[in-house]
Amino acid sequence: MTEYEDDYEEEEVDPFVKVLEQLRKLKVRQVRLTEKGFKKGYGEGFMAGHKVGQEEMLAEVHPLLLHELESRFGDLPPEARMRMEALVSFEKIVELTFAIGTAPDLAALGLVDLVAMENTPPGPQETI
């Protein structure tokens, strides 16, 4: 054996050290999988929470819109109620809220078709 071969002799690794190294690798893998699962769960949980929040907001906003619409235009035809209750976009709800005060009729708000408006008696109008 040369003097260099002595330097490169493989050391025999203690079986206990091998087991510890395997456990360390498993722990690292577990942490990575846990992080991955947490990120996925957080994303899904966030989306579920967002959906619940949106549903709660709509449950509160739709009756207020209905009240405002009926105060301005009288009893709403079923078509107008359905279209108003189908609104789920926050931007569309805000747009409708601001438009209620100035719209001449439900058709201008997009809640009924003009043909349907021709067959509906006018509701109470706001007086100044």
Summarize the structure.
It is built from 5 helices and no strands. The model has no long low-confidence stretch (mean pLDDT 78).
Coarse shape? rod-shaped
Q: Biggest sheet, open or closed, and with what strands and sense?
A: none
Would you tell me the structural class of the helices and strands?
A: mainly alpha
Note the gap between the termini: 110 Å
The ordered H/E elements are: HHHHH
Strand content: under 5%
Overall pLDDT: 78
> Residue share in helices?
55-70%
Strand count = 0
What's the helix count?
A: 5
| Rg over C-alpha atoms, rounded to the nearest angstrom | 34 Å
Number of domains: 1
Question: Can you tell me the residue ranges where pLDDT is under 50 for at least 5 consecutive residues?
Answer: none
Give structural attributes.
128 residues; mainly alpha; rod-shaped
Describe this structure in words.
α2 packs parallel to α4. The longest helix is centred in the middle third of the chain and has 59 residues. It contains five helices and no strands. The protein has one domain. The radius of gyration is 34 Å and the shape is rod-shaped. It is mainly α.
